[in-house]
Amino acid sequence: MKPNKLLYLTLLLTLFTCCKRSFTEIPVLDVTKTYPSKNIILQDIADIVYFALETKDGFLISYPPIQYIDEEILVTNNREEIMVFDSKTGKALNSFNRFGRGPGEYTGIHSIAVDREKNEMFTTTNTLSSNIQPINVYDLHGKHLRTIGFPNIGFPQFFHSYNKEHLFWYNSNIEESSPYKLISKTDTTFTYLPITFIGRDKMSVSQTENSGAITTYSRNGGAILKTSDGYIFSETGIDTIYHWNNRNEVLTPVMIRTPSFKSMKIPIGVFISGQSSEYIFLNTIERKFDFETREGFKTVKLIYDKKSGQFYEGTIINSDFVDEKEVNILSPISVGQFVVSLQALELVELYKNGKLRGKLEEIASELAVDDNPVLMVVTFR
Known about the structure:
Radius of gyration: 22 Å
Number of strands: 31
Shape: globular
Oligomer: single chain
Distance between the termini: 40 Å
């Protein structure tokens, strides 16, 4: 389905006008430079909430990605079982298992999107056994409501509830110049956001061996982050990071990198990982990997200071650890919030050695080594 041509032309004109007016105000990152170091105490720029996920039958977490969180609930899974917890206390609320090959079942869970207005949960499978990508829809108690089978839609790298009628489906396939799809929550119709990027690329390295081609990729490069009114796109191969406002459908440049990704012998990708009122947090990733040593994808964590306009090689420190543990933004829920999973075994050992402070110390004092993780929910101020 083709995007509305008038909207598309309006978007391009808006982008051109915006860039012409404020191009010099947009931060420009030189990925070849070495920047001065800067340490930031997490507690100075963010609100932190710790809670232990309740441990009991039906709520055992072996693989702890948090795929949805709001002020009331969080949703996670262990590949087979989907679990709903209270996001304030960690209390186990509901869990269900629909593992199988029958109607309304899944052979594995890849992504989960939640529509809280309708209390519906949309799940995608991690299998590509056919050209049909099934989306199973459940209520929050696990009742199967419907299955929507999308033909030839690809595999989502990002999956999110966009509005009342649509899900946001992002396909990382670089053959698609417009990979941003709005798919229906009720049937198999879909449309595209009126955004086209020429020159999209991959953050992966391949090597041909006797057994065939082997490909590895960086897990630290995220292409899309949710904001309060849209999404940030950090597309590999594209030299500008953009924000898409889904309220007025305007695309605005956020940051420019130099030199061009395509011009570098060993390309370096740039990805925004988070943002506070004072700082923008980024990763630069070198697209280089040694298959013999299994080392590569050199990652540099950067901080952009909005007030001074300066870039720094940055480290975020959590002062609730006596040894001031470094914090990595690896599981962002949105550009302003991320979740860190703290394993019970590690926390128990740190508590015994007097290495924790405050609320985290209090929680660790009541843990067993085989308990579910403690979640650290960080919301930037």
